Amino acid sequence: MWERRPGHLDRALPSTGPGSMEQVADVRAWRRGLSNDGTVITRGDFLDELAVAVPDSAELVAEHLADNDELLLHLLMSDLLRLTVSAFSEGRTETADRLLAFMDYCVREGDNDVVNAVSVSFVEDFGVYQGESDALLARWPAALRAKLAG
């Protein structure tokens, strides 16, 4: 589906519920256990973490990489916002909530590049696309809301 850096997550992932935020936390703890460097979410591991947290994003990521030949983080954030909006509009609230929780997680645990991409191309773009609503905005977790207000 997408390219992985050599040696990146070569070992089996911990087995918890597929796509759960608990699994993302397990992956983070597992990765920290390998390196003990307090790693945050970076551009290099963003796609792996997204795949675990939001399995429904796989098709979008594959299209993004096919169209661009590489990860363009800001462009992908806009795509993920549109996916969030369409999922919510179509009644797939679990997918929308997973995306919002993951973006919130990225704001809290991401490096400067990831936080900037979420802030500029996900948060600040809210209100641009059709289908965005106050009902969807009400579902935003605290860190995303703080970025929108700040």
Describe this structure as you would to a colleague.
This protein is mainly α and 150 residues long. It has one domain (21-149). 63% of the residues lie in helices and 0% in strands. The protein has 8 helices and no strands. The chain has helices at 21-35, 43-53, 58-68, 73-89, 93-109, 112-123, 134-137, 142-149. Helix 4 (73-89) packs across helix 6 (112-123). It is globular and about 35 Å long. It starts with 20 loop residues before the first helix and ends with a helix. Residues 1-16 and 30-37 have low confidence and may be disordered.
Secondary-structure blueprint of this entry?
Elements: H1 21-35, H2 43-53, H3 58-68, H4 73-89, H5 93-109, H6 112-123, H7 134-137, H8 142-149
Helix pairs in contact: 4-5, 4-6, 5-6, 5-8
Count of helix runs: 8
Report, as a whole number of angstroms, the end-to-end distance.
36 Å
Shape: globular
Q: How many strands appear in the DSSP assignment?
A: 0
What profile does the largest beta sheet have?
none
Mean pLDDT: 80
Question: Notable features of this structure?
Answer:
150 residues, mainly alpha
Short description:
The protein is an all-alpha fold.
